[in-house]
């Protein structure tokens, strides 16, 4: 099993659960849903979501994703992109993902140990 991650707003996830499909902010505008490997989560969070609240971090079993996943070069690294809607049953875990007082993100405690157990870019 390979795990990838996606940051979303709480209300978007609640809507997705009702229809069993998640499109995110970028599927319709860019053609894919942006994701990260575990070592990439903080880079993405701090670059694109700094200071924002009401966020969730989705842990996704990439083997269960029905849409195609492509790893593509962005900012010098290969990031996973989901080319189609995300079936919600592929989501393993959802955790609140809030920045600290300084507006910067840190990994949730349950994921912190995992980053040291896996090589960069390998997922879980």
Describe the structure in your own words.
The chain has 124 residues and is α+β, with helices and mostly antiparallel strands. The chain has a single domain (3-99), classed as Protein of unknown function DUF952 (ADP-ribosylation fold). The model is unreliable at 115-124 (pLDDT under 50). The protein is built from four helices and eight strands; from the N terminus they run E-H-E-H-E-H-E-E-E-E-E-H.
Care to count the β-strands?
Answer: 8
Helix count, DSSP H or I runs of 4 or more residues: 4
CATH hierarchy, class? Alpha Beta
* Rg, nearest Å: 13 Å
Give the amount of beta strand, in percent: 25-35%
Low-confidence stretches: 115-124
Globular, elongated, flat, extended or rod-shaped: what is the shape? Answer: globular
Topology:
Layout: E1 3-9, H1 10-19, E2 21-22, H2 27-30, E3 33-34, H3 41-48, E4 55-61, E5 68-74, E6 77-83, E7 86-87, E8 91-96, H4 109-117
Antiparallel strand pairs: 1-4, 2-7, 3-6, 4-8, 5-6
């Amino acid at each position: 099993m390979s795990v990838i991650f996606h940051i979303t707003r709480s209300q978007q996830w609640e809507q997705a659960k009702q229809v069993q499909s998640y499109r995110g902010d970028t599927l319709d505008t860019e053609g894919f849903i942006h994701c990260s490997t575990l070592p990439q989560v903080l880079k993405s969070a701090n670059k694109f979501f700094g200071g924002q609240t009401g966020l969730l971090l989705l842990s996704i079993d990439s083997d269960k994703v029905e849409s195609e996943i492509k790893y593509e070069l962005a900012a010098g690294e290969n990031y996973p992109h989901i080319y189609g809607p995300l079936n919600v049953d592929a989501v393993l875990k959802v955790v609140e993902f809030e920045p600290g007082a300084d507006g910067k993100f840190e990994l949730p405690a349950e994921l912190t140990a995992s980053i040291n157990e896996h090589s960069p870019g390998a997922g879980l």
